[in-house]
Model the fold of this input.
Amino acid sequence: MELEKPDVVKNSARGQRGVVSWLYGSRPGRMVLRLLVSPWFSKAGGKLLQTRLSAFAVGTFVRANGIDLSECRKQKFQSFNDFFVRELKIGKRPTDQDCRAWISPCDARLTVYPVSMSGRFAVKGTPYTAAELLKNEKLAKRYDGGWLWLYRLSVDDYHRYIYPCSGMKSLNVQIPGIFHTVNPIAAQAEPIYKTNTREYCLIRTEELGTVLMMEVGAMLVGKIENREHGSAEVRRGQEKGNFAFGGSTIIVMSQAGCAMPQDEIRKNSQAGFETKVRMGETVGYRP
Done:
């Protein structure tokens, strides 16, 4: 199974780097941060971005981030959030339908982490356990020895996401929390993946074991909008949901022996680099 050569990106935040460093690395910044990460602040920001007045910011944002609107089903938007959750034209993100292929559920920057037999892994130098991430020790043990696939979405990415496999989906489980940015600088300073608001489900598959898929909210992303909330049969490539405005993260966990990251992606991750991937692209395989 082959991949197009992925784009490699250094773990940086481009223009946001200075602001995020100030927020997380200085005493005044951390005082402001307490306000910014609160759920009510994210909800208030979300409401502002749903107003018609916010649509005037779309053009500037598109130019600043080099976004190609020709891929989208429409080019005019009622609000900034209407633009942010824009839908692509059919065929713009083809999905590998090989049932043994492991595909990306979204456009993002991917890093993969091995989960030890004791359920431990480290993200940007911050130690975690699967039990802390899931708030469920019994469930966490099912992923000992597997892989954690962390897809970080920036504000300029397409913020809809799909199911990476076909199977029977469980009920969604919501874990309330706060809303740190998922910028790499914040990930080094705070254990954001065990404090941020998140939601996950299990997908029982025939070829790839039981896949866990989690959406993590982030600063100004007060809303994780999943289509299916109950148990249901789902198919690979089916739209699962979208995030409201802001950077955000999708975490997928695979059981031991059920999936292996593509060599280049694994090497990039070991070297501290993210790999830029697109929704539907093959990023791993069943060994």
Notes: Residues 1-5, 11-26, 28-33, 185-189 have pLDDT under 50 and may be disordered. The first helix runs from residue 17 to 25. The chain has one domain: 6-287. The first strand starts at residue 7 and ends at 10.
